[in-house]
Amino acid sequence: MPVHIDSHHRDRSRPSHLSHASSEPLTIGLINNMPDLALQSTERQFVSLLDAASEGIPIALSLYSLPGTATATGVALHGSNSYASVETLRNTRLDGLIVTGREPMTPNLRDEPYWRSFTKVVDWARDNTYSTIWSCLAAHAAVLHMDGIARRSSPQKHCGVFECSLASDHPLTAGTGPRFNVPHSRWNGVAEEDLAARGYQILTRTGDAEVDIFIKQENSLFAFFQGHPEYESDTLLREYRRDVARYLGNEISTYPSVPRSYLDHATEHRLTTLREQAISPPAKNVFARVTTAVQNSILESMWRAPAIRIYRNWLEYISERKQANRQDAPVNAEYSASR
User: Pick from 22, 59, 61, 137: CA 20 to 30 A from residue 46's CA?
Assistant: First the structure.
């Protein structure tokens, strides 16, 4: 398996002990901000995607969590030896970094308890990675810190499988085709005009013209994903059932909409009917009936192939940058063009 999870967190500022550059692994960090049991599924999703994308490129993966998050509980459940605090990144470097999102606890991201630690990671990643991927809410928080770009809320959740189209050519999306599918699951987004005004390049848009992937080239190539190419085939379904349970438990005020372009028409119709029943009390056994309605659904990851292609391109970019740095050669001009 090309992806090896490094639980010992060796000093990344020191050269690898491997003597041949071709066998030297890429050092990738995953800052997993998901709490409790979601920690394990999120880790599994990214490890699986990196493994599929690596195609023989060895990867040494280190796992980190942010101070000030509820992730500590999940870390304890998963095994504390696997995760280290991001504070250990100080005075070190990684070849690449992935930072996940999490559900916000406050309306203003600057009020999140982990905000200070998060901003330190952003500043560190600029000069100590070849490239960093910021996923979903992490993307929103990063652009807020970097350029003061505030996310905008939507009246309805942007949830389901969306067809994305290329907005501009870039090696990161090479080989995906002009259109491909990506899962999205969010209430908020960043506006294209705000990003363009501050020097970001839009790579892909969803069918309703919402931004999907965008980048900014600084010392490190920062790639921002509003969608979730790492999702497994049933992740949106599990999130939907979770939100139904929250509504029925009076934790949220809005019954969730069925994820779009995700389930077969018959299942979608059954779930829509159950939604109408649930919001017209008395609603009896709705959650059990929702579970029954979806338990025989056959789900396919229609986004898996382009997700692997994008992450493969990302790993190749990091490899090229690492090799160029080793040889003290100029960076690939294609990637520098977006500066």
Answer: 22
* Closest C-alpha among 247, 30, 12 to residue 138: 30
pLDDT value of residue 64:
94
DSSP 10: -
- Structure tokens of 301? 């990851």
Token duo for residue 7: 């639980």
Label residue 3 by pLDDT band (50, 70, 90). Answer: very high
Strands 3-5 and 26-31, sheet pairing = unpaired
Backbone phi and psi for residue 35, each to the nearest 5 degrees, phi listed first: -90, 160
- Taking only the tens place, the pLDDT of each residue in 126-175 is 999 999 999 999 999 999 999 999 999 988 899 999 999 999 999 999 99
Q: Which fold has domain 3-232+301-336?
A: Rossmann fold (3.40.50)
Q: Kind and range of the H or E element at 166?
A: strand 152-166
Q: Which tokens belong to 232?
A: 């497994």
The angle, 0 to 180 degrees and rounded to 10, between the axes of the packed helices 286-294 and 235-248 is 170
Beta-sheet strands, E only, within 175-220: 179-189, 201-202, 204-206, 213-217
**Per-residue model confidence as pLDDT tens digits over 161-189:** 999 999 999 999 999 999 999 999 999 99
* DSSP label at residue 173: G
Tell me the C-alpha distance between 110 and 148, whole Å. Answer: 11
Instruction: Name the residue type at position 246.
Output: R
pLDDT band at 330 (very low <50, low <70, confident <90, very high): low
Matching residue, tokens 């800052």: 31
**Which residues carry out catalysis?**
136, 228, 230
The residue extents of the domains of the chain are 3-232+301-336, 235-294
Residue 189 three-state SS: strand
User: Quick check: pTM over 0.85?
Assistant: yes
Look up residue 124 and give its two tokens.
Answer: 């560190």
Using only the alpha carbons of the chain, give its radius of gyration: 20
